[in-house]
Amino acid sequence: MKSCKLSSVNTPSNRIIKLFSVLFIFALAISACSDPSAGGVTGTVSINFSGSGSRSVDKIPYPLNLASPEQQEMLEHRIVFSGNGRTLVFEAQKGATSYKATVPAGTWNIEIKAYVKLQGVFLYAKGNNTLNVKAGQRNPVTVDMVRAFYQVGEEGPGGGIIFHTDPGGIVDPVTGEIYHYLEVAKADIPRSNVPGSTDFQWANPNSEAYGYIVGIKEDAEKGNVGAGRSNTALILAADPSAPAARACKDYKAPGSSQNDWFLPSISELRELVAWQKSSAADGSANKGFTPLTGTYWSSTQDQADATCAYVWNIASSSVNNEKTVLASVRPIRAFASEQ
Fold this sequence. Notes:
Layout: E1 22-35, E2 40-49, H1 69-72, E3 75-83, E4 86-92, E5 98-104, E6 107-118, E7 122-134, E8 138-147, E9 161-171, E10 178-184, E11 199-200, H2 228-238, H3 243-249, H4 266-278, E12 295-301, E13 308-313, E14 318-322, E15 327-328, E16 332-335
Antiparallel strand pairs: 1-2, 1-8, 2-5, 3-4, 3-6, 6-7, 7-8, 9-10, 10-16, 11-15, 12-13, 13-14
């Protein structure tokens, strides 16, 4: 077996964002008016967005108090009017404090959806309410804003555990896509044709993936997080049956329909191991998470030796191994705040 040189990667601290639920109260006023130019009576709907209500925050990186214009700008609304076989959708601009629309007179079902976003993209809280209103009546509307984000250590939408969050965005260096969460599967992937085994090769011998794959990001020294998804796609483009990458791509957590898992980059593995070492108090074990042990493949290849790729040894750090060496795989997935 060919040996590859050793290298190590430092472990930065993981950022944990703690956010809580928010309550906002919106006042809705409905009045009727005559519109001769339209040839009949129409209903004018006026919605006033109020900053009153209660809130609870803890270590939130941005203040959340709708009394100030800067903070009000974080609030976005989507209003849907439906009735008489018609549905009208109105988008209120970010930072709006009131909204008016003219609709045919009569009784309407109104659905108000509200969003609070941080940095314009990170969904912090969301809420909605529906009621029937008639033009000319005044109807108060309360929209309860509930937490719309995940915290590190919580179970994710794919059936795994959230181990890394970044409200500012995790950028894929290849595609430029932005994500906010990294979720890890609760257990290693077993080899279907070898009972009891969880070891895979990175590349099949004599396959194109055994050589250098153009485009895969070398992030072992730079510390970039976000390359794993694109790296996995490039590996499978070179060899659709590349064992480690294919096992991750085909993975689905029990009871989940999410099918966008991938082989993590070496920096994503580093973040995962750092979280595991510091997560004893977050209850992850109670959610069925099985700790990583041994050696795990990453999707990061060695730039100096085309036949080698990085693995992370839990007892030490990253090392370069020949792509035909057997190692475990633990798939992860990345998603944005609204996915």
